[in-house]
Amino acid sequence: MSSDSMTIRTAQVGAGHPWLQTLHEWVTTVDHKRLGILYVLLALLFLIIGGIEAIIIRIQLIRPHNDFVSPQVFNRMFTMHGTTMIFFVIMPVMFGFANYLVPLMIGARDMAFPRLNAFSFWLTAFGGFLLYFSFIGGSGLYGAGNAPDVGWWAYAPLTSRAFSPGHSADYWTIAVLVSGFGSIGTAINIVATILSMRCPGMKLSRMPLFGWLTFVMSGLVLISISPLSAAQIMLLVDRYLGGHFFDTQAGGSATLWMHFFWIFGHPEVYILVIPAFAFASEIIPVFSRKPIFGYPAMVGATVSIAFVSMSVWAHHMFTIGMKSYSNSFFVLTTMVIAVPTGIKIFNWLGTMWGGKIQFKTPMLFCIGFLFQFLIAGLTGIMLGAAPFNWQLSGSYFVVAHFHYVIVGGIMFCLFGAFYYWFPKVTGRMLNETLGKLHFWLFVIGFHLTFDLMHIPGMLGMPRRIYTFEPGRGWEVLNLLVTIGAFIQGIAILLFVANLVFSYFRGPKAGNDPWDAWTLEWSVSSPPPVYNFASIPTVASRRPLWDLKHPEDPDSRYE
Amino acid sequence: MSAITTPIAQTPVAGSLPYKGKVAMACLIIAESAIFTIFVVAYLFYLGKNLTGPSPRAVLAAPIFYTICLLSSSLTIHFASRFLERGKRGPFLALWFLTIVLGGLFLFGTGQEWHRLIYERGLTISTNLFGTTYYSLVGLHATHVTVGLLMLGIVLLFGLAGRVGREQSARLDVLSMYWHFVDAVWVVVFTVVYVLGR
Predict the structure, then answer these.
(1) Fewer CB near the terminus (10 Å): N or C of chain A?
(2) How close is the nearest chain B Cα to the Cα of A310, in Å?
(3) pTM recorded for the entire structure
(4) Contact (CB, 8 A) for A373 and A450
């Protein structure tokens, strides 16, 4: 069976305490699958925490003049909610999936640098813990503030010593800096794995789209997380060494921070959404029973999205008053991004067109993603037009828009990915009934919250206000938005319950429950530590199709 | 685990995949370049925006000698690697040591310049915008030189212990990529700080 005599050493510590030994194995692991699972569990933990913060925000805004939390706590909640969800939920979960799946999909035994992998994971994890330690340690010597309350953009001068005494802003800075180094480490690892570890026959043009998109995402991490790290270092210089980078009283510029932040901030959106595209590109073909439509166009579109996304950042800053040339440039580049994104949407539709579509839970989530991401893109085009943006920047319309991208687009794909790959990771299927219930509840809650949230924005409700006056037509809408948030919360709890229940009681999955085509489905579920007993050789984009249909293999047409 | 037989490719892949160490170092260099770009942009953006003195023109002198030291260390490390490739460990160690000396000289030059600026000219990181951007940019580079020297030093120790042979030359090439990058960044920093900035 296996030609190589591979011995798997298990750590011999804590004899007599099996749980201690298990814990030791997980803490010291360098296995890409275990690190992938750790990433995902970390993200789920922070998803619950960030979700609770969102619920607190929504309870506070359920009616005018509510006093569920103080204004100070409200500021901390939206800051922590944003920072947590971006840096400690979506990025880790995407890295988790990439870690778990990339080596399996390209026929490798592990990532290129297993120890760097573990190091990066723990940097991210401790970054997250550091952020939350601020609730305890943020008071510092001054006894002022605890958790960061500067918003996830942390615009200057809010972060200066005068406006953020104590250590709350430092916890934010250092947590984001540390997790940023973790992200860069993982991105380096993914790129090296994809370029150097592919199995024989796995040419770049045969790599599953998941691999391609993860590769592009990692490249984007390298180029755009680093500017954030640089800006955080500058902020630390300002706060600790008395520097003047963002100190307007010494000639520094608050606008420069905005530029630096958004040079990171806009590509970050694509760092988050490209893995979601990757999930959709794997799930939609399998449940349409057709190969992906327009594979080269998909790759090209992804690369051009990444490329163009580097030059659109200032559309977040139209209201600071730029020159008309700058405004026009950033409007045009923003509009241009719609082209490759449109190519992708049409390719997914083309994949579904004429296919035998199976409406299993992963597919349902991906179909939801298609519609919702389209709408999110349309409001994005609206906000990308400078005059429209001048009117609605900083309003709930913007909040609705980017939650449409992140929840309606990214989270939906992510849930689809959970339902799709859970059998591979655990060996058991997720419960389909609970899954469908989760889907429909989440759809209802999502649309109740975020469709309606556009309207108070257009009626003039600014974001980040802790309460509002009655009589402006915002009351009913805010009430409904909050109800929608609770429905989403219930759906997430159902999902977590499904994960736990199915882990113990779900039906056995077998190697390949979805009759899929990529290499990860060729090994047992869960895969053995060494992934492949003998390194596979592939001859087409769908190696398992070739295996199952030797009479009509894909390789004949490539 | 049930073994599966995967179809054998009709045509095996031509050529081999790139060495993962080089790919990873190239990625790190891309990320580091982005960091340096931001610092350089900040430096250029704040040129001439000082509200108080001293100004770059008044206090900066181009460190030509130390620049030559650092840039020539790129040559010495390159030839050190070539010697190791051919298995000539003596010349390798000598050139490797020379690289460390040249890098150390550069760092000494930076230290000397900073000492002069701080104690004679009264320019610290908190004096004015120039101080903030100058010390951050040059300091970021000096940090990279220091890290590089530490890694070069580790290799030297292993080399003196006789543990570095031809089989490590691919790995040392990765390290010398980093060192070349540090030198290339200095060309940019030098141009920005000592040529354009004055």
Answers:
(1) N
(2) 12
(3) 0.94
(4) no
